[in-house]
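agent> step 3/5: call structure_predict on target 'RCC1-like domain-containing protein' (Actinoplanes missouriensis).
agent> reason: downstream docking stage needs a structural representation; sequence fetched in step 2, passing through unchanged.
tool.input:
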Amino acid sequence: MRRAAGTAMALLLRITVAGLAGTSGAATAAGVANAAGAASAAKTASAAKTASAAKTASAAKTASAAGVANAAAPIRAHLASGYAHTCAIRADGGLWCWGSNSSGQLGDGTTTTRATPARVGDATWVAVDAGTGFTCGIRADASLWCWGSNTRGQLGDGTTTRRTTPVQVGAGTDWATVSTGDSHTCAVRTDGTLWCWGFNRLGQLGDGAVVYTATAPQRVDTATTWANVATGYAHTCATRTDGTLWCWGDSSAGQLGLGLLSYRTTPGQVGTLTSWDTLTAGFFSTCATRTDGTLWCWGENGYGQLGVTGIYRTTPVQVGTATDWAGVRAGLDTACGTRIDGSLWCWGNNTSGQLGDGTTTHRYAPVRIGAASDWTADVAAGFHNCAVRASGTLWCWGDNASGQLGDGTTATRPDPRQVTFA
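tool.output (status=ok):
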């Protein structure tokens, strides 16, 4: 969809009812397959354009107990920020990336840094996530593709060869959701199985540390009820369809939520609750929402990335007392979340103005970003943050040394600026 000549083209990402880009959400396995190919781009764009942020979040918040399983099932992420690059899927299924490209993470066949969005081929995409120096995405046929840095086998193509264009991970066409960390990747299939690959020095692949590096997907556990997965620097957490939460890998800062300050090489359940909903992992921290709308974080807290004061936490701690959180997204030492009223909040590291509050002051509690109340649940966080409004427009702010804000410059922005697509 285009606006009048001379204005920015609306991003019009496909917004899901309970989703947060790259975290967790509300499509059933059958719905995932349908979402991969059934709805036309025009119909999808129209739905994204007309649904308000409040309505979107409200649907997530008011899901009945019977709908908890649906709320825990996989969704597709349409917006992702890596260490210094950004990728987004537009309403027509086109994938666009920009920013640092030293490892080919933009997928355009070069290693040229780009300060404005550039399309990645002509395929139709339904999901994307960005690691430190690599990117992975799912196409409309449910095939999985990765590109960029591959020193630890994190691309899953059986090699450690850097790729500047997307390379398929195996031959499967049943991938539901994918999450990329620093040097490892995990993904859930539509049959409920969970697979991880890449670096495994601290057991982040969940295999009992049988291998040090895996260059192809290997199955985690024997469960067939995995719903969503989130990867941090060297830890992994995932939810199951029964609403339980499991974590493994590095816990040197308590990021597994298991009361440990060491590591665990196989999945361990976080408490006994069956009400976990959206899920996200920072470098050394983890955050998640529950179906009652509360927000919880744990792990490293040097910059306030847990949204509370004090030192690290080895078990989940509630962020404030609000019960209207729609979703959360963490990256590095920063986190952002949306509430059901469409407001956007960020906290943690603010060295590059990535909290979007016009300052560089670290925040130990969520601070509201401006007065807008039309933010959707599509958010990506890190040294730079991006988010989508109900109008379909994309906004980014924070570090911009490699052009990752997509505004054609390398100037740091302490408040949201709209991204223009050619």
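agent> step 4/5: record observation. The first strand starts at residue 79 and ends at 81.
agent> proceeding.
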